[in-house]
Amino acid sequence: MRIFASRDFKVAAHVVEGIVLAWWIAIFFSGIFQCDPISKAWLPETRGKCIILKGYFYGNAVPNILTDFIILSLPIRQVLKLQTDRANKLSISVIFLLGSFVSFSSIYRFTTLLVFDPLDPTWTLAPSQAWCMIEISTGVVSACLPTLRPLAVRLATVLGISRSAARSKPTRPVNLVTFGSGDPRQKRGESLQHSQFSRLDDEESDSPERMAGVVSPVKRRDEQQIDIEHYGRDPAVHATKPRCSHPNSLLPAMAPEDDYVFTRDFLDNIRIPIQGADLKVADVGCGTGLPSSTQFVGLDISLDAIPPAGVLPPNVAFRVWDMIHDPVPEELVGSFDMINIRLMLYVLQKDDVPATVNKLMKMLKTGGYLQWMDVDNETVRGEVTKTENTSDNMTQMMKLLDSQGEKMKPKWVPDLAQIFSDSGLVDVDADVHTSQPLWAYLEHECLLLLPELIARKTQNEQLATEFKRLLPLAEQETRKGAYLAVEKYIVTGKKA
Known about the structure:
Layout: H1 7-32, E1 35-36, E2 49-50, H2 53-80, H3 86-97, H4 100-113, H5 121-124, H6 126-143, H7 149-159, E3 176-179, H8 202-205, H9 208-211, E4 296-300, E5 316-320, E6 336-342, H10 352-363, E7 364-384, H11 392-402, H12 416-422, E8 425-434, H13 449-457, H14 461-479, E9 482-495
Parallel strand pairs: 3-4, 3-6, 4-5, 6-7
Antiparallel strand pairs: 1-2, 7-9, 8-9
Helix pairs in contact: 1-2, 2-3, 2-4, 4-6, 11-14, 13-14
Family: Belongs to the SAT4 family.
Keywords: Membrane, Transmembrane, Transmembrane helix
Subcellular location: Membrane
């Protein structure tokens, strides 16, 4: 479930877990109480009666085979839904299907039971017991197959097997529109300019360092290695930037005005100390990329945060649109292949969501996709990256927010998939991701702005006092690695 985090997969996995557990309990106690009295199982001369062993073995083997195939089929549906080419889907499916040897071992073990004779159990059960051991051993190996991928890749390289499937290229550009108040730097289009990229081998991108979010050492043009571990101490890396916090902020200032927003010893300090105009950058894990022929249109209620028009590439445009009160502009009706909207949790009330979905559908072409990303407030919880640290004050603030009602803590995000379906979208799918510990390096005090805003604006003096007390304490917790974990929903649907 750590690989496929969708709700449908989790529900199916838990149902299968329950079935397997119930079946195991039944078999376990049936084995114990197969005879009355129990001792007759090992003392045949004892007066009493026992169940028919051959039927017991069949009852054990058949459900075992069925559940093996059910478990084997669970990830295949998720693999087929991956946004990748057929070759990659096939290779991933093959890795999972290697576990089918366990099922075939179970089937063959079942055939050996057909020759079982209760009058000579030690001889006629020997093949079945041997295949029982084989089945268990192959099950352990199959469970470890995904971790053997780096070994398989290296063997393929040694044997000269082509890896062209892993180097597939995008097939066609898409049209994309973004809504909301995301980081405007994502819309500037630097990534759309023609640049040279180098793709790293998969075994490098799957390294523990990459998975842990650690930046690998970078070389300057003189090929001198830079020690990333000590980059925060480099006195040459210095910039003048304004304070992050408002002058009246209840939170302590992060750094002096003539330094970076975050102090050099802070967790968020993940910078690489190279600067210059002639840098060559490899964007590893960039997916299919966004070709420069794609047309981007960003719509928002205000354009105050966007860059000046003169620095935007020709394929990027912005316009003002209030999705709640304004009708869909006529020139945008049926004009987009894909619409992405995100982080509207505190912008829309639940009653606004269906109408917003209908407006966005109106802007899609037939066959176009709507993608909505938001977070589920019901799952917000304080977590830590180190067991010796705490998130008690962050958790207490979230409870205070919860006490203010649904307006301060909207809860409609889990209903998005149903709203999509009710609006007429087809092929609706919801993918759910849980915050990873790396969020501790990304959130810090910026995620505490909402309780700070309440503390400064609320008319409830008792509530304001409590927030003012908790905010500095929660800020200190974030410095030590506390973060708010939350489940993120990505819901997609197709216009029929």
